[in-house]
């Protein structure tokens, strides 16, 4: 198993103040091994097994390969995964799987450590193509198609996205028209914008595909359904009516053969419709267990939510690796003699460097705890333990909330880590730029982030409106009075006045109110609830307007809707972090994690400080103390930075970054020894400035 203990050669002693020894004895200590186990989450052993695999060179990316070489290497790696039994965990036991949905995603996410291209291509094969057959098909489809998909005998594509319709799946233009005479569906992409695009496995390797199209029978369009289609023959040539193109070189993930597909009069048997949620009889009659077309559509798409789950986890892992590299380097690399005549300072002892990296580390911790809870929820839904419509809707909302935040944060962290490592961070050998390129598209994979957050906002508005569904005049009147009182209390400055009186001009008193767990939760929750209430008030009555006018009202509030959803997702992360704290047994570790959680929570408040001031939630003095206390927390966490990144458990074989391997420490030690020997021997040349100073004294 991969050792999650600290990597001792990556923990040099940093420059410290003279009183550091006495202070260190009073500091809480982090149990790195226990914390590492906690961060691995519910499927810890499965993650460790997957990381052990990711540490093996045959699964890893070779920097500098051509696109063609990289594509063939990743395809061969998929076969290695099959041969090692690593990819069948989520499939049915009767087909050789384990029916373990959460464990499957946990293992799959860890492939990002080896090569994001491997993670995504395996996700296309088994998490999208295979999963579509599993979750949208029925037993006959499972028996007919899944064994060859599982064994990689049939590589496949997941053909949903179209050139003209990305996130708006309901409006795709590909059609599947039923022909009663032959009992076949005829698949067509009627114009260029209807071509299926950006599809992994489509350019070269895909033999079959699950294609999403508008199902039309007896002149009626029953909406988007999934169909199984053969693409290529055994020689790799397109079958009649099927065509396509290679997407070519991309900004990243070039180990995946993304391409386009189009169909002209392609006929498939009636039973190639994946008919779990909608079927067509021989005479063309359509039937479905879900009568509402809208609910049927969202149910079908909801079965494929695992892509968003895995992107949330993989993005969190990539950010954790970047911070491990950057923080390790920052405790070894020395620059400028700020506090000594002879000794240069390590980068992480500079306040600005701490500000760049440690708050981002706090966010990764919040994401890690939130992701594990998310994965537990996913497993409960897909195992059938909690599979009600409400459970599925909750899962889809959580997915749409967390995936945007983690993918955006991964890009932000990778960029900041790259810059924090200077020129060394720009070298491919140190991994960060490659990860940054590969993860760029994660923000638009499985749904554009802004579109996903808009879905979250709509759910929040729906839940808000349900509070008053069927309410009588008295309940609404009481609510209106309450809202008026609330606005008067906050808007008139009464809340701020109360804070000023409580603070008595003391920054310490201001801070004490902010580091309280309940105070942080109240502030974060209040922002979400107030934003939703304000938006709901502005949208109230819009549904009674003509469609164009209603759309204009919604459009004017779209940005605030997305910000409210983002605030909701940030609250989910904070709450998950807090629950993780409650499960931390070691007292020293718990104290340090509490500081990390406070840094995350107060960082959110600082980011949105303008909102809290405008809405009267914080007095100017207390708002000022937010930044002051964040700076104190960062300084307090500085001695624990290495412990916190080492707890992620990544070894040198995982990171594969020379600047995090101890090489920088060796260079620094060599340089320090050289100059120290010069000074000791008296052979060091006298600096011109020293002579000038002596001359002035005379």
Account of the 3D structure:
By secondary structure, this protein is an alpha+beta fold. It is 57% helix and 8% strand. It is built from 27 helices and 11 strands. The strands form 3 sheets. Strands 1, 2, 3, 5, 6 and 9 form a 6-stranded mixed beta sheet that branches. Strands 4-8-7 form a 3-stranded antiparallel beta sheet, with no helix packed on it. Strand 10 (279-280) and strand 11 form a beta hairpin. The longest helix is centred in the C-terminal third of the chain and has 36 residues, at 547-582. It is globular, with a radius of gyration of 29 Å. The model is unreliable at 1-6, 8-18, 491-498 and 500-505 (pLDDT under 50). Its cofactor is FAD. Pfam families: ACOX (PF01756), ACOX_C_alpha1 (PF22924), Acyl-CoA_dh_N (PF02771). Residues 528-660 form the Acyl-CoA oxidase C-terminal domain. Residues 302-461 form the Acyl-CoA oxidase C-alpha1 domain. InterPro entries: ACOX_C_alpha1, Acyl-CoA_Oxase/DH_mid-dom_sf, Acyl-CoA_oxidase, Acyl-CoA_oxidase_C, AcylCo_DH-like_C, AcylCoA_DH/ox_N, AcylCoA_DH/ox_N_sf, AcylCoA_DH/oxidase_NM_dom_sf.
Quaternary structure state of the chains depicted:
single chain
Fraction in beta strands: 5-15%
Helix % is 55-70%
The tally of strands reads 11
Count of helical regions: 27
Largest sheet: 6 strands, mixed
How far do the termini sit from each other? 68 Å
Mean pLDDT: 89
Taking all Cα atoms into account, the compactness measure Rg is 29 Å
Shape assignment: globular
- Please state the structural category: alpha+beta
Unreliable segments (pLDDT under 50, ≥5 consecutive)? 1-6, 8-18, 491-498, 500-505
